[in-house]
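P.,

For your records, the input lines for the assembly:
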Amino acid sequence: MATLHTRASARLMMAPSVILLFVWMVVPLAMTLYFSFLSYNLLTPGAHNFIGFLNYSYFLTDPAFLMAIGNTLLLVIGVLLITVIGGILLALVLDQPFWGQGIVRLLVIAPFFVMPTVSALVWKNMLMNPVYGLFAWIARGLGITPIDWLADVPLFSITLIVAWQWLPFATLILLTALQSLDGEQKEAAEMDGAGAVSRFIYIVLPHLSRAITVVILIQTIFLLSIFAEILVTTNGGPGIQSTNLTYLVYAQALLQFDVGGASAGGIIAVILANIVGIFLIRLIGKNLDR
Amino acid sequence: MARAINTRSKITFTIVGWLCGLLLFFPILWTFLTSFKTEGDAIANPPYFLFFHWTLENYIEVQARSDYLHHFLNSVTISVGSTVIGLIIAVPAAWAMAFSPTKHTKDVLMWMLSTKMMPAVGALIPIYLIFRDWGLLDSRIGLTAIVMLINLPIIVWMLYTYFREIPGEILEAARMDGASLAKEIIYVLTPMAVPGIASTLLLNIILAWNEAFWTLNLSTSKAAPLTTFIASYSSPEGLFWAKLSAASTLAIAPILIMGWFSQKQLVRGLTFGAVK
Amino acid sequence: MGSISLRNVRKSFGTTDVIPGIDLDIEDGEFVVFVGPSGCGKSTLLRLIAGLEDTTGGRILIDGKDVSDAPPAKRGLAMVFQSYALYPHMSVYKNIAFPLKMDSQAKDVIDKKVREAARVLNLTDYLERRPGQLSGGQRQRVAIGRAIVRQPGAFLFDEPLSNLDAALRGTMRIEISELHQHLKTTMVYVTHDQIEAMTMADKIVVLNAGRIEQVGSPLDLYRTPANLFVAGFIGSPRMNMIEGAEAGKMQAKTIGFRPEHIRLSQTDGAWSGTVGVAEHLGSDTLLHIDSDEFGPITARADGDFVVKSGQRVFMTPDKARMHRFDEKGLAIR
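Structure tokens returned:
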């Protein structure tokens, strides 16, 4: 193919994408980094003084920061646990032949296509409302006092909502991986005397390990920046009980107008995300060499 | 014996499968049903499941009161616009990388992917300030540009994985058959690339439609797409569940249908080809 | 109309020389087979002739004209690819018509040529189907059809039968040979299968590590291999090679006997051994013998020669058909 396109024309074709993405990546990041060293509040116009790492030390020692980090991790880990375990189970069910399989598949993946604000509002009002919500009605039917989900267990409630949105994604990817498993391999294991459980542990699970890794890494990237669900349901509250890092930075910047402090938070979020990102890049990069 | 067990397991899995499916789908179904209730029926206790007074009033109300159509069109403009512009920019790049790869192609692809790793909050503040200074806040152009940029790596990657599957021998055959570069592109490459481009288009419209970080932060009313519009229902002044449900149903229905059509592409698109 | 000449053609990828320099003449109307183990450069050589790869050095002449720098389309050649490379979005008819359409021929001319090719290749009933709906053999025929409608100066085949099952390979071999007899056009055919080479070729070119080991008719190569490599590569089962004292007696480093040139007996003979595995093919029997003197030997016996594993047998080589090779592996004549 070397004769079809010269290198120069290939570079020319790639230039717009590369330049745009480069600018998109570098300019905001550089500005955020710059702001993070300034005393810069939108409410106090005038000189923005260079204050070194003061924003960072302020942000890092703020109890809200530690709380937000903890919430971010809890949210990510909680959703990952539910979606990966639930996804494997659901994928195993959907992989079996049964009547109406195609329709059930469509039902299962549907939540993924619901926009975050809609799913957050539907869950907040119609399911989790302590008086009129369906969960409250079920609780009363079982003779339990209904709880005010978003006030009493805000982070857990948000975890449930987000898990509902991402369970289809995990299921779909794990199902795809499951279906690529060679049937003869399972039959060979059966001939070797492996029961259903050991077939799952020794054949199916290792085959899925790659897909599970992909699910965990990709979801982590998105889950680290969960925003709309928190904004719509709890506004980070009560207090800061459901504030994650993304929401904290948002609140610092657009509610308290502290550009410097928020920028320092943004940089910290970038660093955290990159630690995850490095693993993902490596994994997908390996796949390219195939 | 084997047959009996098969039928029995099929019945079991039919029940289990449908239970799981309906459970996961229930919130959507419930929204759909509630959208046809009166506001009174919507918060009734015990709740009405099917036997209530069906009405279309909410749909009419949503449009009349809050100009639903305006926000719907904003969503269409932003999602379709950003995807089409993204494709125009990405097709040549993906093409070059798939058909005339160099030593650095892989690095460039990896780097593009790495831009996806950057959390949005890292860029929120400067982008907000730039938008404010340039008068782009709450403008469709600004939102379209941002959504295009955040999806551009995915678009390049999806196209690349599709283009790479076009076998090189077919292009060689076309050259042996006397096709010039232009004819090779018109008669052989384009028809083979169209399915890949179409599914990239579909998936990215879905992603753009549901994008809810930048749209929430950068739009309020004039350019607000459905994500922002729906979020405005979160204010606690009264319970308008039926109307909320009607608006939600309208907001998710088109994309849900598109999503169902593109479910196969979804996996490879969102995993950057790592799972097929 | 279709003679091809290579003059010191060289090809290197980066620093590795795939083809260090080849000279070869292919006469008009000849059926030439490039054969050799995988990685020997035979496909690369074909792609150089096709123009799909640029030569690093040397000249390629077609009908005496230097085409070294001409694009593939201008060389007047047609190629059948290993994967067939059919256009998946076009019907069989459109696939076959494609080169004619690229040549801007009139619609009715195209139609006539496509239908004629389809008739010759038994594809008339499948013209409206897509390649995906065809069997492997039918796809193969569409690929050939696409090649013949152009009436090229020469056909190039790149391992065209390797994706077919054994039975189909047999029939397609005959079909391609018949096509050659019918068209009388030059054909250059690449394969790693020496049976294809022996049965189809007018002239076989044995390649190894980018070099030509020997050029000749199938029987030439079988009867008088120029060196150890050709002796070992052509003929199935492989020629038995014996080194050491027995070879020294014949003033050679290595001597070789084909399995069919060893006379077997249950009573007496020059060498003796124990039968390991006996493969009864019906018409004849292949014996894998552990000889007392030289280790494993393969011998071809008559189908009536009944022996079992573990039995003792005696072997007498046909000295008139013995091959002798010197230290460099070259045949001593």
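Two observations worth noting. The radius of gyration of chain A is 24 Å. The first strand of chain A starts at residue 38 and ends at 39.

Regards
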